[in-house]
Amino acid sequence: MKKEFLDLGRQPIANKFLKEDEINDEFFFDLKVVFDEETKLVSMKDFVKPDMMFNDDYKYNTSLSTPMVNHFKKTAELLKMKFGPESVLEIGSNDGPFISNFPIESSICVEPCGNFSSKTANMGYTSYTEFWNTELADKLKSDHGNVDLIYSANCICHIHDLDDTFKAVANLLSDDGVFVFEDPSLLSILQRGSYDQIYDEHPHIFSVTALDNILKRNGLIIFDVDNLSVHGGSNRIYAKKPNIPSANTISDSVIQNLRKEDDFGINNFETYEAFAKKVQFSKEELLRCLTNLRHNGKKIMCIGATAKSTTVFNYCGIGTDLIDVITDTTIDKQNTFAPGSHIPVASPEDIDMLDYDYAYLGAWNFKEVIMKNQKKFIANGGKFISHIPKVDTF
Length: 394
Ligand code: JHZ
Description:
The chain is α/β, with parallel strands linked by helices. The protein has twelve helices and 18 strands. A hairpin with a 6-residue loop joins strand 14 (336-337) and strand 15. Helix 4 (134-144) packs parallel to helix 5. The longest helix is centred in the last third of the chain and has 27 residues, at 269-295. The protein is globular. The mean pLDDT is 97.
């Protein structure tokens, strides 16, 4: 039932920023993308073993991103107001920007990366350094009882076995509890052509349509959907147990999102074939743009050593021949080499932006913040390059 539509070539572990002695011993896999005719789910054809990506060396540190910290604070306030939960569990709590808005005594963190679960543990939260699955849910239920709010951001789409994931949630959730999770939206990705949101950590890219199908068969139903602007367009899904008296009726947003996706063609394989053509064109245009600038003697760097930029650089074959250096505010990514492309990653403080003519936006999702911070570069004639929504300089 699974039909392949996109081949993004050989890719490394997207967040595995390398020390010099790791460069010659890198793991690569074939990144192909498939569409499941039955559930309408878009997934990677072959998955990478979770512990190769999520371990004590994991580099994506949410609290270092001010816009995301603000996002999680607002989300926590909204969920408290809407549901007033007495107990909370976060799946994939990273270093705690969401859970830190809830009381220590009634909140639980699940996070497989020990470098981050130790941070929430040090803050006082009960933290399990584990992957989410039915076994862990059973253990949590016997240790703590049912939970009123289970929340997860940019994590559920990282888990291979969705049936097991949702069964585990349904088992642990209180009868009138809510499961709220947000991940990048397939519709936004198709509309923007942001193929770079596909990498090892995202074995699935969610549409509301596919989630509706898969949640239902695991004892949960969607009762509300928020369309968010974070990460280039995400969906926040609200799910609950069916047939249980609850104040939460089904919102119009569910039907509206299903209809919007159907109108766009999310249920048709042809939509994905058209997307694959758009991706190929984007690659050719980006290479043309960077190569022309280089031939004209321009110096190009990149802002944001993102997982997304790993996909772009490896799919397009971009290395130090086109981009000299990447800057990133995450200390653990600094003084490393980007996966696959081996472009050096530096602290923004160590790079004089006035030495560069162009900055490629590795973190195009933070375009406004980045441009606001680069007034001197812009005043000096510096320009930006992005491939989203189409390859362009500005
Ligand atoms: P950002 C991560 O993807 C990985 P990435 C993960 N798998 C996921 O699902 C998504 O997030 C949602 C830096 N930066 O958030 C900080 C600057 O250097 O787009 C970050 O390293 N200067 C969990 O990696 C990176 O850019 C700046 O001014 O694609 C942004 O990473 C700003 C604003 C950020 O996620």
